[in-house]
Amino acid sequence: MKSPLPYKYYACSVAVPPVMRVRRPLEEEIYNRMSDGENILLRGIPKIGKSITTSAVISKAERETVLAGVPMIKTGEEVKGLFESMKSDEKMFILIEDFNRLSVLEPVEIRKILEKLNNPPKNVTVIISSLTNHILDGMMEKELGNYTIIDIRSISDIETDYLVREPARGYGIAYKTDAVEAIAKFSGRRPLEVFIMCYLTTSILDQHDLLRYGAPIGKEQVEHAMDLPILQMNSAGMSMISHYKRVFENCLDNDERMSLEMINAGFDIEDKKKLGRLEALGLVTGQRINGELLRDLIDSGFLGN
Fold it and tell me: Considering the entire predicted model, what is its pTM?
């Protein structure tokens, strides 16, 4: 009988269950800021953890204040009407998700929406969640002066360790320290990649009936699973590669893509603002690519195809 462990990791890569929430300090920080009346703009690349973070914050807010759901807004007048309807003595939190979908609108319309969003009623606190988008980000930074911008980055080594080990605890499967370090190194400590790398590693072991013997998983097994040709033969591996392509195409402009390629080739980026944005996205650390798989994909030219 095959082990259910690989599919547990895969399920986490699709939808992270509450027990696997590792950004609780960030959730608490955002909630406290909103309780103090700060409006929040939460940004990040796909699958970095925006939805689970906002859902945790809003879940806590539901117990203590009025919460308003907001349909997709398409004009500044809709925002104005929404805010007018919410004016009261009652404190309200509202969540606007997937703001990046508005990138299809004309810039003049987007600016009108942002201008209205920047001035909610005194009783209303807003949290906007948006996929990092090279078209929208500059406009949001300029127009949303009354918002605190929080970029969701990679998780810590301790948090990565938890995501790797916790699903395996009930199956008698252990990871050697060097295996966890290899997963962190390959993934850049981004949750989606961590879960898929664990899925691929345990799936390959399970195919050879090696999981049921309970031998600790080591660095060698992780490195084998992360070999690029093996990734390209696996649907989960290809989904991870497609994820990187979406980041390249939708989150970065041409200059930022070129900067990543230059860093990967060993050149330093002197433009601190540009470097800071790539760090905020969790794609670089200092002047180094964050994640060996990302580095390998840039080397191969696969992301430019």
Answer: 0.89
